[in-house]
């Protein structure tokens, strides 16, 4: 029984017994014409006060006894396991449950232009024990964007970034490399202007089958030709 319930119970017992004793006192001290009324009142109060003292003493003794202590709930000494810190591989940084790494300097052998094709970027991530990034929801997408901005802080890098989405297997069906469907529409995919009209991405048709974070559109997702050059965003859990 919780402590506050025990206290409440005994207070009710105390009040009940006090009331019963008060009634008994009324029966014992009936008005007597031969006894001074003031003396009757004093005798009645003395008797009631004695009853109160007796009851309070009993309650105190009960609270100090093993009987009442054994009725109270004792809470086990539970030791919570602290959350384990995410162990990221070399070059990776922990970002809300996953490990991310972006490389703005890597380039394909023999080329001056920084960046890799989508296939080369995928191989690069695999070599690090990871894969091109995939976003389970909008929160993961925003976390990745914040990570990119922190990495790019003060460096004025304007590169696009490859992520692990493609519709090469089936045109129009965009899948992450793990086989899950990519989210579509806002807030993931950006817009592209064609013939003075803005179109929701992806809009490149059969020519553009790989997903990237496009710098010129604030790193919203765009479809692009898979041989374009961009920085790889790698992820592992």
From TrEMBL:
UniProt-listed SMART domains: CLECT
CDD domains on file: CLECT (cd00037)
Domain (C-type lectin): residue spans on this chain: 117-235
Entry keyword Signal: yes
Mitochondrion found in the keyword field: no
Span of the signal peptide: 1-25
Keywords, ordered alphabetically: Signal
Coiled-coil boundaries: none
Protein name: C-type lectin domain-containing protein
Species in which this protein is naturally found: Meganyctiphanes norvegica
